[in-house]
Design a protein that fits this description.
There is one protein chain. The chain has helices at about 1-15, 25-50, 55-65, 100-115, 120, 240-255, 285-290, 310-315, 320-325, 335-340, 355-360, 365-390; strands at about 80-85, 130-135, 145-155, 160-170, 185, 190, 265-275, 280, 285. The strands form 3 sheets. The chain has a 5-stranded antiparallel β-sheet, sandwiched between helices. The protein is built from 12 helices and 9 strands. Helix 2 crosses helix 3 and helix 2 (about 25-50) packs parallel to helix 4. It is an alpha+beta fold and about 400 residues long. Pfam families: 4HBT_2. InterPro entries: HotDog_dom_sf (IPR029069), THEM6_lcsJ_thioesterase (IPR051490). Keywords: Membrane, Transmembrane, Transmembrane helix. Belongs to the lcsJ thioesterase family.
C-alpha cells in the first residue's frame, strides 16, 4: 500500500503541475528567457569572432532590428499561445474553468507584446491591463488542446484593445452555427441572449470588414466617445434589459471585428477583449507612437515571410524608419529614442510632419475607426450596466 500510495501522490502532483509555485511566472516570462538566451548567444559569438567593440554593438543593433516586424500592418499580425485544459485548470463540470481563461491570457498578451513591440520593451516599457470582456461561445473540455490567438482590435489616443480568441480543432467536423439565444458560457451553462437578426441567431460566417459603415452606427474620436452609439439604445432600460442589450452589443462587436471564423478550420470557443495601455515608468505612451517605433505601416503583410535576411527585412521598412534609426545612433544607444517616446514627440509642431500619425493611414485608419466604434459600444454598455447595478 505505501508504494501504491506513493505513485498516486506522484500522479496527482504531475496532473496539477501548472498550479505549482512559480509555474505561472515561468509561463508568462518564458519569452523573456528565450530573448535573453538569444541575446547572450549573440554576445558570445562576438567574443568568439574577436569583433571590435564598435562592430559588436553594430551586430547587436542589427540583431535587435531583425526582431522588429518592420512594415507590418498591425491588424494582420497574430500571436499564438498553445496549451491544454489540464485537470487543475478545469472545474467540476470537466471544462476549462472561467478563471483559467484570464490566467492563460496573461501569457498570451506578454508573448504577443514582445513579438509586436520589442523596441518598446527595450526601453523599459510595460503594458498594464485595465479591463477584459469575455464572450463565451463553447466549452473547452478537460484535457483538450487549445490555442489562444491574439490580434490588435483597435486603439485610440491612450488605450489599445487586444482581441484574444480561444480555439480548438475539431476531430471530425466543425460545430454547428452558434445560436445566440441559447449560447453557453465557459462552464457550459445556458445563457439568454436577445435576437440579433430576423432568424434569432448570429451566422457563423466571416464578416466583411471592408463594407462601409454609416456614421449613425459608430462613434469615432472626432465625434467624441462619451455617448452610446445609436444602433443599440441603452438609455432608460431596466437592469435586466440593460444586460440583454449588452449581450446584443457584444454579439455585434464579435461579428464586426471579424473574429467568428478561422481560415484553418479551427473552432472559436471563447473571445476576450483586453483594454491595455503603454507606460514607461508612470508616463503613458500613445499606441500610435509605440507602433511607429516598431516599424508599423498600412501595407499588407500577407506575403511576408516569417524569417528573412537583414537586407530583406530593411526592404519592407516604412519610409519613416530612418527617423527611428537616427534616434538610435550610435548603434545600440536608445537614449534619444526614449526621450522622444516619453514626451519629446509633443515638441514637434502641428504643422511639421508627425510620422507616427501618418504611418498608419488609409485603409488601416478607416479600419481602426470602425473597430473603435464597435469597441466603444461594448465599453459604454458595460458602464450603463454598472451604473444600473450600483
Amino acid at each position: 500500500m505505501p508504494t501504491v500510495f506513493k505513485y498516486i501522490v506522484y500522479l496527482l502532483l504531475a496532473l496539477n503541475i501548472k498550479s505549482f509555485p512559480l509555474v505561472w511566472h515561468y509561463r508568462v516570462f518564458r519569452p523573456v528567457f528565450k530573448f535573453h538566451l538569444q541575446h547572450t548567444y549573440v554576445k558570445l559569438m562576438n567574443l568568439v569572432t574577436f569583433k571590435s567593440k564598435a562592430a559588436s554593438r553594430r551586430r547587436e543593433a542589427e540583431w535587435f532590428e531583425s526582431l522588429i516586424p518592420l512594415g507590418a500592418n498591425p491588424f494582420e499580425l497574430m500571436g499564438t499561445f498553445k496549451s491544454r485544459a489540464s485537470i487543475d485548470e478545469s472545474d467540476f463540470n470537466w471544462h476549462l474553468s472561467n478563471s483559467s481563461y484570464a490566467k492563460t491570457m496573461d501569457s498570451t498578451r506578454f508573448k504577443f507584446g514582445l513579438e509586436m513591440w520589442p523596441n518598446f520593451f527595450r526601453l523599459g516599457g510595460w503594458v498594464p491591463l485595465s479591463a477584459t470582456h469575455f464572450h463565451y461561445l463553447r466549452e473547452i473540455p478537460m484535457l483538450s488542446k487549445y490555442e489562444v490567438r491574439a490580434t490588435v482590435g483597435a486603439w485610440d489616443q491612450k488605450w489599445l484593445y487586444v482581441v484574444q480568441r480561444f480555439v480548438t480543432y475539431p476531430k471530425k467536423k466543425a460545430s454547428r452555427p452558434i445560436k445566440l439565444n441559447g449560447k453557453q458560457n465557459g462552464n457550459g451553462d445556458a445563457a439568454s441572449t436577445p435576437d440579433i437578426n430576423e432568424s434569432g441567431s448570429l451566422p457563423y460566417i466571416r464578416a466583411n470588414m471592408r463594407q462601409p459603415v454609416s456614421q449613425t452606427e459608430i462613434n469615432t474620436p472626432a465625434q467624441g466617445l462619451s455617448s452610446a452609439p445609436s444602433s443599440v439604445d441603452l438609455a432608460g432600460l431596466s437592469s435586466a434589459d440593460e444586460k440583454a442589450n449588452l449581450s446584443a452589443v457584444s454579439a455585434e462587436l464579435m461579428k464586426g471585428l471579424d473574429v467568428l471564423d478561422e481560415e484553418d478550420g479551427a473552432v472559436v470557443n471563447t473571445i476576450a477583449i483586453s483594454q491595455v495601455c503603454f507606460k514607461i515608468g508612470r508616463i503613458t505612451i500613445p499606441p500610435a507612437i509605440v507602433m511607429a517605433m516598431n516599424g508599423a505601416s498600412g501595407l499588407s503583410t500577407s506575403s511576408r515571410r516569417k524569417r528573412y535576411t537583414l537586407d530583406e527585412h530593411r526592404r519592407v521598412a516604412p519610409a519613416y524608419w530612418p527617423k527611428i534609426q537616427e534616434m538610435m545612433t550610435p548603434p545600440g544607444d536608445t537614449r534619444k529614442l526614449k526621450k522622444f517616446v516619453t514626451g519629446g514627440w509633443r515638441d514637434v509642431p502641428e504643422g511639421e510632419e508627425r510620422f507616427w500619425e501618418t504611418a498608419l493611414g488609409g485603409e488601416v485608419e478607416e479600419r481602426r475607426k470602425r473597430n473603435l466604434g464597435l469597441v466603444e459600444q461594448l465599453r459604454r454598455g458595460l458602464e450603463v450596466v454598472d451604473e444600473g447595478v450600483m
